[in-house]
Known about the structure:
Elements: H1 7-31, E1 41-46, H2 53-68, E2 72-77, H3 82-90, E3 96-100, H4 101-109, E4 118-134, E5 149-151, H5 158-169, E6 179-181, H6 188-193, E7 199-204, H7 209-217, E8 220-222, H8 227-236, E9 244-248, H9 254-257, E10 262-274, H10 279-291, H11 293-297, H12 321-329
Parallel strand pairs: 1-2, 1-3, 5-6, 5-7
Antiparallel strand pairs: 3-10, 4-7, 4-8, 4-10, 9-10
Amino acid sequence: MFQALPRIGRRRALFGSAAAFAVFGLLLWWLLPLDEESPSGTITFSTGTPTGVYQMYGKLLQGAIAKDMPHLDVQLLNSDGSQENVRRVATGKADFTIAAADAVETYILQNKPGSGRLRGCARLYDDYVHLVVPRSSSVRSVADLRGKKVAVGPSGSGVRLIANHVLQAAGLDPDKDIKPLADGIATMPELLKEHKIDAFFWSGGLPTSAVLELSKTYDIRLVPIGTDLIKKLHEQGDAARYYRAAVMPADAYPKAQRGSSVQTLAVANFLITREDADANLTEELTRTVIASRDHIGARVHAAQLVDLRTAIYTDPLPLHEGARRYYRSIKP
């Protein structure tokens, strides 16, 4: 027959079991996410035109956020581009967005509503300026656009802002020396194919699907924007100081470029929000943006260029406190 455990043995056994459960509970607390700390509610994210990189990036980021923050509902808003995106966030009509540095600086310099509340979360990737013409076109430089019908983007777009700067640097008045059309990337390619415009400007990540698809069905060229224009742009000061010389790689649009790179200019894009955005939410969203770089980059090549080493540089915007917390948390 088995002997009963001594009283002290039973106590030790009970204490041991309690200790084991306590350790197990602590491990669960450490390993499992706490729902109450996971951001919840609804936020709005202003993207871009339906066929642009902003919109595609926004959709893929929405999916990544759904996995990382399942209690957060992200609503996407299409927009005309950077200028409208900045205005929406600054005035509270959107919570987060992507916008180019020149559009952010212009909004701040014009002291528009809410400009002082804007904050940066991350430097993302660069937009490249495209000047697209039919291959048979006589246009070989920006100056050759004089008298031509040129699509320059809607008034609220980043492409309109950058096109005006480039035209002025080439000695052209955007309102008088060309025939400007306010069409965006959704309609520009078809207008070019139908000979309703002679050229169009576009500013976007590489490759932009609308331009890529156009190059497969219509013979186009990309007009170079030389370094001489970059120098003149910098002489304009203000927002133009964010433009820098860049080279569009030969494989961006193989059919259009035929193995040749194209000299152009680039401008950085930022993930932005407002000063009053929740710090925990902003920290986690910034984390998702960095962590999803490779996954999103498989569909949007530009996203592969999100670099943790440069993500903190969001001049002219100070970093949001939540984003700052994220970068501090991963600092070695």
